[in-house]
Amino acid sequence: MSNTSENEIKQTTNSNTIIYPADFCVNSQGLFHLVRDSDGTIKNQEKIGNKIDIVAFGTALDGKTPSAVLRFQNRNKQSSIFILPLDELHDYNSKWSRRLVKEGYILSTKNKKLFENFIFSTIAIEENEGKDWQIIKKNGWHNHSYVLKDMIFGDKQGIIPDVGINNKFFTCKGSFESWKEAAKLAQGNYFFEFSLATAFAGVLMSLVSIRTGIIFHLYGTSSAGKSIAQTLGTSVWGSPAQFISWKGSQTGFETEMVCFNNNFAAIDEFTQAKANDVQDIIYMVANGIGKARATKNVTLRDTNSWLVLGLSSGEQTVEDKIAETGKNPQAGAMVRMPNIPINNDMFTNLHTFVDSQRLVEAIERQVQNNYGFAGQEYLKYLTENYDEIVPRILEKYNEYEKELLPLNAGLQVREAVSFRI
Question: Are 271 and 204 in contact, with CB atoms under 8 Å apart?
C-alpha cells in the first residue's frame, strides 16, 4: 500500500462509458482499491492487478449466463478480451482467476476478493443498467452482422465475440490479389468451380432459410483432382490444412462442426472413415445437432448446434463405404450426402499448361501461400450491401428450384434443393 493524493488518482473511462465505483480506480498503472479516511479523503491505494477495463456486461444469445466482458493488455502487450460469467464469482470451486491469469493478466492472489467486489460494485451502479451486449459464442450470422473468430463484419454495436475457435481455422497468409490468380486457373474446370462455389455458399444457407446442412462427396481415383479441389475451397476461408478428417470420432466431428457454423467445411480421407459410424455422422452433420450431455451436477449442458455446407472426398462412394457394414444405405443419408464423380477427363481448360498435373501444381503452389482473404472480402461485401444483396440471392435461389426440380420428383427434390444454393 502507498500514500496517494487525490490529484494523483486519474480515473479512466473506457470506450463504452461504464462507470466505476468510487472505491476503485482504473488507470495506466493498474486496478486499485482506494482506502479513504472518515472524511472521504483518499489515504491509501491498494493495487489489485494490472490495468483492466470492463467493456460491457452481456449475455449469450440464449439469454443465459450473464457475464462481464473484460479487456486488458496481456504479457505480450496485446489487447485481450476475457468473458467472465458472473455466476463463477459465487462459485468457490470456480477457476475463473486461474483462467484470467493464464490469458496473461497479472492478478494479485490475495486481492482476488477485491477484484470480485470491483465487478459486483460496478454492476450495482444504476447508470450502468441497460448496457448489456450480446456475447456471440460461435461463428455465423447475428442479425445483419457476421462474427468470424474475433472479427465482426457489419454493425459491431452491441456484439462481443467469444468464439474461442481453434487458431488453425480461418487464418490468412499472402494476399487476396495473389489468391485470385489461383481462382483464375480454376475457371473452365467445373469441379474446381464447384468447390469454390460451395465454399462461398456456406454463409448463404441461413439467409435463404435453409435449416438442414449437406455434404457433397467427391469420389474418384487418387489422381483425379479431388484433394486439390477441396484445398481450393478451403483457401477461401483459411489454410489448406483447414480440413476435418473422416478418421475422427463423432465427438470430434461435433466439436469441429461448431467451429464452421454458417460456413464451409472440407472433410478428407473418407476411405479411412469407420463404416459403422458413417451414417450417424452424416445425419449428425446435416441435422446440425450434437448429443445431449450432462454436467457434473447432472443437469443438461446446452446442446451444440450448427449449420454447415460440407465438401467431402475419397475413392469410395457413400454406398460402398456403408456396404462394408453389410447394411444398405438409408435414403435419408444419401440425400444428405450425394455422390459427385470426379475423373481426369473433367479437366476441360488447361489454360497455358501442357497437362492437368502442371495445372494442379500451379494452383496448389498459389493457395499454399495465399489464403483466407477471399472469405473475409466476401463477408465485407455481403454485410455492407445486405439490404440489396440478400433479396436478390433469395430471388435467384427460388428461380433455380423451378429449373432444377422435375415434375413428380421424389428424393431428387431434396438433392436439387441442396444444389441450388
Answer: no
Which pLDDT value is given to residue 6? 35
Q: Using alpha carbons only, what angle is made at residue 401 by residues 397 and 407, rounded to the nearest 5 degrees? A: 175
Q: Write the CA distances from 193 to 27, 198, 221, 398, 410, integer angstroms.
A: 54, 9, 19, 21, 28
- Percent of residues in the chain assigned helix, strand, coil, to nearest 5: 40, 20, 40
- Cα separation of the two ends of the chain: 64
pLDDT value at 143 more than 80: yes
Q: Are strands 339-341 and 214-219 parallel, antiparallel or unpaired?
A: parallel
* 3-state DSSP assignment of residue 263: strand
d(CA 134, CA 66) in angstroms, rounded, equals: 10
- Percentage, residues of the chain above pLDDT 70: 86
Instruction: Give the rounded distance of the alpha carbon of 35 from its chain centre.
Output: 44
Helices (H), 18-84: none
Span 125-137, pLDDT tens digits: 877 776 667 888 8
Burial label for 298, CB within 10 Å (0-12, 13-18, 19+), is: exposed
Give the amino acid at 282: I
How high is the mean pLDDT of the chain?
86
User: Is the CB of residue 132 less than 8 Å from the CB of residue 59?
Assistant: yes
Tell me the C-alpha distance between 134 and 196, whole Å: 32
Positive/negative CA dihedral, 187, 232, 170, 144: positive
Do residues 275 and 333 touch, judged by C-beta distance below 8 A?
Answer: no
Q: Residues near 64 by Cβ (< 8 Å), separated by ≥ 6?
A: 302
Task: Give pLDDT, residue 340.
Answer: 94
Q: What is the DSSP letter of 329?
A: P
Element (H, E) at 33: strand 30-36
